[in-house]
Amino acid sequence: MPFVPALHAEWIKVRTLRPLLGALLAVPLLTASFSALAGADESDGTGFDALYSAFFGVSFGQIAAVTFGAQAVAAEFREGALRVSLTAMPDRWRWFAAKAVAVGVPALAVGLVTGGVTLAVGKAVLGSRWSGVTGAEALRGVVGCGVYLALMALLAAGLTALLRSGVATLGILIPFLLIVSFVVGGVSGGAADYLPDRAGQVALRDTWDGALGPWTGLAVTAAWAAAALCAGAWSVRRRDA
Asked: In sequence order, which residues have a C-beta less than 8 Å from that of residue 171 and are 6 or more positions away?
């Protein structure tokens, strides 16, 4: 089977499985809701970052994004579904590439919509505190939000293919992301800056202290996602269906 029909088949799975659609819909809902709550805090003292305050909810919306990525791949390891998929598409590399595109493209589309909605909500809630943010910074926040959420979904997809379990993947990623975001969040200038969420979320900040900038930070997150996808592809190629 050529790549395009394989991609079409994977896209049908994404849009017909309700848990996957539910996870995608939860991304903008969680992100915008928690950003609104963060923006409602009227404190704007030293270190206040209006752009990051507007996109604060991404720390929660990414949980729905990784859930989408994990569930999209985990469905293949239930009740022999992977054997059926590989019967239709014997080339395992091509099949996994189609799966990755079917995860990444809708995650990016939803992420960009999430970025636009969250920006509008955050700007409205922050009011006069938003005045220092330029149009270029706001655009970077929207694009960075979309790219970051897509990369986190792909990271989860690759890890799930390696572990062959969505539960195991979420059991690793969700505590990891929450710990990094809320416990290690104040650490900068060290190895913590190169963790996938810390690096990628630099694009959502007006100011930053670490070695990474907005686009280099997203590049680090992309490297994490690429490594996970390569490991997942290796597992699919080498292990029995």
From this structure: none
- The total of other beta-carbon atoms located within 10 Å of residue 78's CB is 9
Q: Is the per-residue pLDDT at 184 higher than 90?
A: no
> What is the DSSP annotation of 115-131?
HHHHHHHHHHHHGGGGT
- pLDDT band at residue 239, thresholds of 50, 70 and 90? confident
Task: For 75-143, give the secondary structure using H, E and C.
Answer: HHHCCCHHHHHHHHCCCHHHHHHHHHHHHHHHHHHHHHHHHHHHHHHHHHHHHHHHCCCCHHHHHHHHH
- Give the 3-state secondary structure of residue 61: helix
DSSP category for residue 89: -
pLDDT tier at 20, thresholds 50, 70, 90: very high
Q: What is the DSSP string of 16-69?
A: H-HHHHHHHHHHHHHHHHHHHHHHH-----TT--HHHHHTTTHHHHHHHHHHHH
Question: Would you say residue 81 has pLDDT above 90?
Answer: no
Which of 6-10, 14-18, 151-155 reaches the highest mean pLDDT?
A: 151-155
CB contact set of 189 (below 8 Å; sequence gap of 6+): 209, 210, 211
- 120 token code pair: 């509008």
Contact assessment for residue 106 and residue 145, using Cβ atoms and an 8 Å cutoff: no
Amino acid symbol at 64? A
Tell me the C-alpha distance between 64 and 152, whole Å.
10
Q: What number of other Cβ atoms are within 10 A of residue 19's Cβ?
A: 14
Q: For the chain, how big is the Rg over CA atoms in Å?
A: 18
Q: Which residues contact 143 (CB under 8 A, 6 or more apart)?
A: 112, 115, 203
